[in-house]
C-alpha cells in the first residue's frame, strides 16, 4: 500500500530499523528505487525536493510513482523540504501521502507556528508531516554554523505542533562531505529519550555504514539519501553512453542508470534494515 510516513516510521521505531527516503528526479530513478524495494521486500519512502517539482511539475512525480508501484512492499510519497504552506498543499492535492515543512531557518516560535499550520491542514486528510529543528549543513548552513537540536526545544516543538516526525541537526550536511563529519550520536539518544515521535536524519550520503548503524541504534527511524542516488544515476548514465557510443535511443543507455540506482538503493535498504 501507499501509506503516510507516520505508519512506516512508527513500525520502524518499534522494530529498531530505519526507513530510507530516496530523492528521485525522473522516471528512471523511480523505477530503480521501486525495483530495490521489491527485491528486498522492505518499505521505502520516495521523496522529491521543491527544485525537482519545479523541474517536472508537482503532479508528475506522484502520478509516476502510483503508476509504477505494484502494491508491495509499503511505500510513502513524501515532499522533502517544503518551504511554505502552498507547496505542502499542492503536493497533498497531487496525492502525496506525507510532507515536510522546513521552518528550521525561522525563529523557534515562527517555525512552530508554520509547522502547526501544515499539521492542521494535513492531518484531517490522513497525510503525515515532518518538521525540522536545528540546522543541517550544506545548503542550509556552513559547517561552522551548524546548530545542534536542543533536547528541551525538541520536546516543546513536538508538543506544540503535533508533528509526526522530526528532522534534527546533529552534524550531518546535504551534498558531498569534504572531510569526515562528526555526528553527535549522543544527542540523537538524548532527544529520542525525551521525544516520542520518530526522528529523521538528513544528509546521510557519504556517512560510513558504522555511523549510519549507530544513528539508527540511537533512535533514528528515517534516513534521507539524495546525493548518493544522483551519483549512482549519473555513473550509470555515463556507463550506458560509453558502452553504446553510437546509440541515440535513450532506452538503450538509460537502463544502466536504472540499474545503478537500484543497486545503490538496495545496499542502502539493507544497511537501514540491519536490525530489522
Ligand atoms: Zn534534507
Describe what you observe in this structure.
50% of the residues lie in helices and 15% in strands. It is an alpha/beta fold and 276 residues long. The two termini are 20 Å apart. Strand 7 (199-201), helix 9 (209-218) and strand 8 (220-225) form a beta-alpha-beta unit. It contains eleven helices and eight strands. The model has no long low-confidence stretch (mean pLDDT 95). It has an eight-stranded parallel beta barrel, surrounded by ten helices. The longest helix is centred in the last third of the chain and has 23 residues, at 250-272. It has helices at 5-15, 27-40, 50-56, 58-68, 85-93, 108-122, 151-161, 185-194, 209-218, 227-243, 250-272; strands at 19-23, 44-48, 75-82, 98-101, 128-133, 165-168, 199-201, 220-225. It has one domain: Aldolase class I (TIM Barrel). It binds zinc ion (ZN).
Draw up the topology in text:
Elements: H1 5-15, E1 19-23, H2 27-40, E2 44-48, H3 50-56, H4 58-68, E3 75-82, H5 85-93, E4 98-101, H6 108-122, E5 128-133, H7 151-161, E6 165-168, H8 185-194, E7 199-201, H9 209-218, E8 220-225, H10 227-243, H11 250-272
Parallel strand pairs: 1-2, 1-8, 2-3, 3-4, 4-5, 5-6, 6-7, 7-8
The site of zinc ion has 5 residues, from loops.
Key features?
15% strand, single chain, eight-stranded parallel barrel
Overall outline: globular
Low-confidence stretches: none
Average predicted confidence as pLDDT: 95
Q: Could you tell me the radius of gyration in angstroms?
A: 18 Å
Name given to the CATH architecture:
Alpha-Beta Barrel
> Which structural class best describes the helix and strand composition?
alpha/beta
Cα(first) to Cα(last) distance is 20 Å
CATH C-level name: Alpha Beta
Q: Biggest sheet: strands, sense, closure?
A: 8 strands, parallel, barrel
Total beta strand runs: 8
Q: Which percent range fits the helix content?
A: 40-55%
**Hetero groups:** zinc ion
* Biggest sheet: strand arrangement: 1-2-3-4-5-6-7-8
What CATH calls the topology is TIM Barrel
